[in-house]
Amino acid sequence: MKLLILSDTHGYVENARNIIQRIGKYMACVIHLGDHDKDAMRLQSEFSNIPFYVVRGNNDYGTDTPTELMVRYGGKKILLTHGNKQNVYGNLNVIHYWAMEKGADAVLFGHTHTPFYEDKGQVLLMNPGSISRPRQSLTPTFGILEITDTGIMQGTIMEYHGENSFFPSKYYL
């Protein structure tokens, strides 16, 4: 099964909408890691046939969206957070150990607008980057987390080059 991971749309949903239209039917769910959770709610109303999981980011106000969420897919515990409370700009050790304490097999986060992927053995860490406002990467990015029938997890950072053009980023394979 495959999970579509988005983050940091910041009011610009067109790229996310195009991706969901194109590959949403192949995904078990869509995960939005905050900034802006209202974008995720809009997309969820447009694609009501796909389960959505959403967490609040540091730019999400006046909402009761949770700041963290644990979901289970393929026998794996996947911890969702925006990452600002775990200081992901400074050091990823904090979010890594936090996820271990929570018993997560993977932690998905955003906040930096910069894609990141590392399988640390005990916990897989993945930041899909920003689909709307990338920072260090000039190309908008999103993530796909695949969980095989045997429970192996593999994340892929995807570059978005327009409505019908996206492919794995050579930097995160």
Provide structural commentary.
- By secondary structure, the chain is an alpha/beta fold.
- The protein contains 3 helices and 11 strands.
- It has helices at 14-23, 37-46, 93-101; strands spanning 2-6, 29-32, 52-54, 68-73, 76-81, 106-108, 116-119, 124-127, 141-147, 153-160, 166-168.
- A 6-stranded mixed beta sheet has the order 3-2-1-9-10-11, covered by helices on one side. Strands 4-5-6-8-7 form a 5-stranded mixed beta sheet, covered by helices on one side.
- Strand 5, helix 3 and strand 6 form a beta-alpha-beta unit.
- The longest helix is centred in the first third of the chain and has 10 residues, at 14-23.
- The protein is globular, with a radius of gyration of 14 Å.
Summarize the structure.
17% of the residues lie in helices and 31% in strands. It has 173 residues and is an alpha/beta fold.
